[in-house]
Design a protein that fits this description.
Layout (H helix, E strand, L loop, with lengths): L2 H10 L16 E2 L15 H5 L14 E2 L13 H10 L3 E3 L9 H9 L5 E3 L10 E2 L13 H9 L6 E12 L3 E13 L15 H6 L1 E11 L7 E7 L5 E7 L4 E7 L26 E13 L29 E14 L8 E7 L7 E5 L5 E10 L10 E9 L4 E12 L10 H7 L2
Parallel strand pairs: 3-13
Antiparallel strand pairs: 1-4, 2-3, 4-5, 6-7, 6-18, 7-8, 8-9, 9-10, 10-11, 12-13, 13-14, 14-15, 15-16, 16-17, 17-18
Length: about 425
């Protein structure tokens, strides 16, 4: 089967418990925090207002290198999935000091202004019913008390209002090394509504009227036989399938498509659409449980030098399994959230997300098969924001390891920009046709 046929076929497939509570009946409203907003919300107060600091006792000191020989000594802050990569796949963890993080001033202002308004709704089997009410921007659930609230925080985590990234994707075999690569550029609007950084605020009028929360336009740049392939997609405020168009150069036409159905991989890779950035699906499509809170090692200030020929130095391509990242890890406070899919098409029987308690980004995801065995480990490594008051942390690399196949997909950032100022018309069928070759 050709890559084009595969893409058509794939895209069309339609530890301390902390306030965890049982699933509510469908339609039940899960209350947000009852206390009022803090008097001020800024870089100095953000962490304790919305989350908590890491417990560094038991964590390795900065400068420690954790490997197979000493991983058991630090298991209190190393999840089972990461320990598996250390013991069985040769991963080394270089430890740095914890550094607090906060979102932009605009995002913090929106969080304080809308404090306590949002309500999470358990939708049960009603997968097309929206599972949040009263959301008006910023972080919807400071100090989340349920798994559903924590996931809505991850869904609305600060990533800027829009952005652009150029990256190289690697398909890697543990025994053979790099099998192939592709180069892509990706423009996106994260917030078509409830914007905090870039005018027009709070909404893009054209997107608000159509209920579009997210839009992206991805372009393949290499190899030559695939260059010019374009994918335009939209995610709506309601939990409906992600829709859009695929421009196929050989046909010189745009095909209407459904993208990112549960269980569908991105571009025939080890990374599912729902794995991107840890979780990129609709929260309504899963049942969520807050397992507890924890301090783990995670690469939130990875220290990766970004650029063609530079980002590659952050990966040990020369030694088996040929995908291990060489980045800085630090103690991070996380909410541990378990999800169980409502769709039978999902490849996972359950997932465990480690949601950072300051940024609510997801540096680590564990995917378990329906037989209960660990199947997938998904890691996202972030660099420090160039200016925390106005820009999000930059994603330096993403890694999805399929333990059953002993295979991985790496996405390495070459260039990235945030809060570019994209317009709604930059993400239209007309724009797609103008770009088409």
């Amino acid at each position: 089967m050709t890559w084009f046929a595969r893409m058509i076929a794939v895209a069309a497939v339609v530890v301390l418990a902390r306030g965890a509570r049982a699933h509510e009946a469908p339609g039940a409203v899960v209350q947000a925090r009852g206390d009022g907003p803090p008097e001020s919300l800024d870089a100095t107060t953000w962490t304790l207002a919305v989350g908590f600091e890491p417990d560094v006792q038991g964590a390795p000191e900065a400068g420690t290198v954790v490997g197979a020989a000493n991983v058991e000594e630090y298991r209190a802050c190393i999840p089972d999935s990461v320990a598996t990569l250390v013991r069985d796949r040769g991963l080394s963890i270089e430890v740095s000091e914890y550094r607090p993080m906060h979102p932009s001033r605009g995002y913090m202002e929106a969080t304080r202004a809308a404090w306590g308004r949002a309500r999470a709704v358990e939708t049960g089997g009603s997968i097309r019913r929206r599972g949040i009410e009263g959301y008006a921007g910023g972080l919807p659930f400071p100090r989340p008390g349920t798994g559903l609230e924590a996931i809505w925080n991850a869904f609305f985590a600060y990533q800027g209002d829009d952005g652009w990234v150029r990256f190289r994707a690697y398909w890697v075999s543990a025994s053979r090394g790099v099998e192939r690569t592709e180069d892509w550029s990706w423009s996106y609007i994260v917030r078509g509504m409830d914007r905090t950084d870039v005018d027009p605020r709070p909404h893009l009028p054209a997107f608000e009227g159509r209920g579009i929360r997210y839009a992206s336009l991805a372009a393949c740049e290499a190899p030559d036989d695939k260059a010019g392939l374009l994918a335009l997609m939209f995610r709506h405020d309601e939990p409906v399938d992600q829709r859009g168009y695929l421009w196929v150069p050989a046909l010189r036409r745009a095909l209407k498509m459904v993208f990112g159905a549960p269980g569908v991989p991105w571009n025939a890779s080890d990374m599912l659409f729902e794995d991107i950035r840890g979780f990129s699906g609709h929260p309504e499509w899963w049942d969520w449980t807050l397992v507890g809170t924890r301090t783990i090692l995670a690469p939130m200030h990875a220290g990766v030098r970004i650029g063609p020929g530079e980002t590659e130095k952050a990966v040990d391509f020369g030694s088996a399994p040929h995908w291990n990242p060489r980045v800085q890890w630090e103690p991070r406070p996380v909410h541990v959230v378990e999800g169980r899919p409502k769709f039978w098409t999902s490849l996972y029987g359950r997932v465990v997300l480690y949601v950072d308690a300051e940024t609510f980004l997801v540096p680590l995801k564990e995917g378990y098969g329906r037989d209960g065995s660990l199947r997938k480990v998904v890691l996202h490594a972030f660099n420090a924001s160039p200016d925390e008051d106005s820009e999000p942390p930059a994603l330096a690399l993403a890694l999805a390891v399929d333990l059953r196949r002993d295979h991985a997909t790496l996405l390495l950032t070459w260039e990235t920009r945030a809060n570019v100022g994209f317009r709604a018309e930059d993400f239209s069928q007309a724009a797609l046709l103008r770009m088409g070759r």
